[in-house]
């Protein structure tokens, strides 16, 4: 009776408190979807350990590198609108020459950047705060592969390419990157999402999934990381304001490589649009065809990537030689993985079977060995449980 009264009182107070060992249980959500329906099969753990707030199926979370797939879809929408071309020298959009200093004659294209074949690498860093120069960052030889020009450089997964792509999209469209993504990707799908909390409602920000490391340390998106506090990287002495920001100068401030906040039910809508390309007014069959073609044309030598195309990854292709397995059911899938701040996330689609999964799990330990694989045991276990639950 006392427990019931306590639960009722806490409910009236607007939160749920969890005591004992469950108070540190990592938040995890998995949503299984097909072309028409989306079902949360696992929703567990705490979105906020301090208050004891339990996670809900569509609570927004930083999805890390799945943001690159969102960026690719925005790019392809601009291709359809005739505003950009994947094979054009991006210098034409930026208004200044983007070149690997060692290969000044070799052009850089959006297609190369999206496929991680431009020669860019992360050795010089990839966060360019408001008030600093993207052009100056890219003039640093350490930002480039030294031994081959763009287009001939080997596949090397690099976050630095994303700020370049996003800045090119801004320059070509005249739209700020966050607003472009809202117009081209989120709004047509009825998705509530944002980049670095810019444009998200106050109510959505209050439902944020706080990211914790496996040690229990808060890693990201606690109250001080959310509005009304500054949510973008800002150079020393620079005001945290986008009022005077000029689109096409430095879209790194929106973290296009990993800064999307979105719930798993909404992320599933994006997956549904990709496996149901006949749906009018969203993504045409040409978009999915371009994604798949670019991926098949860009094989990699990495276990984690059976193929990597325009912001999209292929995994678990039978007989390919890529060894990292997630679902383990012998079916290849396309999508993208995410990893940051103790979080593992994924959006994966079995296009032939017309099914997919959107998921995340927090507080995942860092790998103990460099070659321990692309997927963490915690996310493999989550995905297998969700898959089993959906097949019942």
From TrEMBL:
Alphabetically sorted, this entry's keywords are: Signal
Q: Does the keyword Cell inner membrane apply?
A: no
Pfam families listed in its UniProt record: Beta-lactamase (PF00144)
The Beta-lactamase-related domain covers 27-371
- Protein name (Swiss-Prot/TrEMBL): Beta-lactamase family protein
Q: Which residues form the signal peptide?
A: 1-19
Output the SUPFAM superfamilies linked to this UniProt entry. Answer: beta-lactamase/transpeptidase-like (SSF56601)
């Amino acid at each position: 009776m006392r427990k019931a009264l306590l639960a009722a009182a806490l409910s009236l107070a607007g939160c749920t408190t969890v005591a004992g060992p469950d108070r540190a249980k990592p938040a995890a959500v998995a949503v299984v979807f097909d072309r028409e329906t989306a079902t949360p099969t696992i929703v567990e753990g705490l979105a906020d350990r301090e208050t004891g707030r339990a996670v809900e199926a569509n609570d927004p979370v930083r999805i890390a590198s799945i943001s690159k797939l969102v960026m690719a879809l925005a790019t392809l929408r601009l291709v359809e609108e005739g505003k950009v071309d994947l094979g054009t020298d991006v210098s034409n959009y930026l208004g200044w020459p983007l070149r690997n200093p060692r290969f000044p004659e070799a052009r850089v294209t959006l297609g190369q950047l999206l496929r991680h074949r431009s020669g860019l690498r992360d050795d010089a860093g990839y966060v360019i705060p408001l008030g600093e120069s993207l052009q100056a960052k890219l003039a640093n030889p350490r930002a480039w592969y030294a031994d081959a020009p763009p287009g001939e450089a080997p596949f090397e997964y690099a976050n630095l390419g994303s700020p370049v792509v996003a800045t090119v999209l801004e320059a070509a469209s005249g739209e700020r990157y966050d607003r472009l993504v809202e117009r081209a990707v989120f709004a047509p799908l009825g998705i509530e999402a944002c980049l670095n909390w810019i444009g998200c409602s106050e109510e959505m920000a209050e439902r944020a999934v706080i990211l914790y490391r496996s040690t229990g340390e808060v890693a990201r998106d606690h109250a001080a990381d959310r509005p009304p506090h500054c949510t973008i990287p800002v150079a020393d002495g620079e005001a945290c304001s986008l009022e005077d920001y000029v689109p096409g100068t430095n879209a790194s401030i929106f973290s296009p490589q990993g800064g999307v906040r979105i719930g798993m039910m909404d992320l599933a809508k994006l997956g549904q649009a990709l496996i149901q390309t006949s749906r009018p007014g969203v993504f045409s069959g040409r978009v999915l065809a371009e994604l798949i073609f670019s991926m098949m044309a860009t094989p990699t030598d990495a276990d984690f990537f059976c193929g990597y195309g325009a912001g999209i990854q292929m995994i678990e292709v039978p007989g390919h030689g890529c060894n990292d397995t997630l679902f383990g059911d012998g079916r290849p899938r396309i999508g993208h993985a995410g990893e940051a701040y103790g979080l593992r996330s994924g959006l994966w689609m079995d296009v032939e079977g017309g099914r997919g999964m959107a998921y995340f799990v927090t507080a995942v330990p860092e790998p103990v060995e460099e070659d321990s694989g692309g997927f963490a045991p915690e996310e493999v276990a989550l995905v297998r449980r969700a898959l089993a639950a959906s097949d019942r």
